[in-house]
Structure formats: C-alpha cells, structure tokens
Amino acid sequence: MSFEEKMDNAKNRVAGKAKEIGGKVTGNKEREAEGKAQGMMAKVKDNAIHAKENIEETADNVKDSAKGFVKGAREDSQKEIDK
Length: 83
Description:
The chain is mostly helical. The chain has helices spanning 3-26, 29-82.
C-alpha cells in the first residue's frame, strides 16, 4: 500500500483510540465502542498491509529462484551438448 494509505490508517488508529478514551471518560458507551471498532479496523488493515508486502516479497523470491534454476538448467544442457 502507498505511504498515504499507511498514514491514513495510522490516523484512524489514533482517532479510534481518542474516541474510545473519550467515550470512557464521558460514560458514552456507544462512542467508546465506536472507537474500539475503528481501532480494530485499523489493526486489521495494518495486518493486511504486512501480509500483502510479505506475499509480494515471497513472490519476488520465488521468481528469482525460478530464473536461477532455468539459467542453471540451460548451462547444464549446453555443457552436455558441448561434450
């Protein structure tokens, strides 16, 4: 995700915590629950961002490994032809 999306998510996490605390202080259970929900959604989005980044990194590693394997196989085949 982009930097802007990450920052927006951080803003939502902080805003959710502020709502939660504000709800506790004023005794407004609905506001407190709304803040908790907003904070939990931010955590879910954070986890999704990290999962996506890990998947992309793993895919790149697999692609690089496959390229290396194919290159090695070609070199081995060429050595056999050259014999």
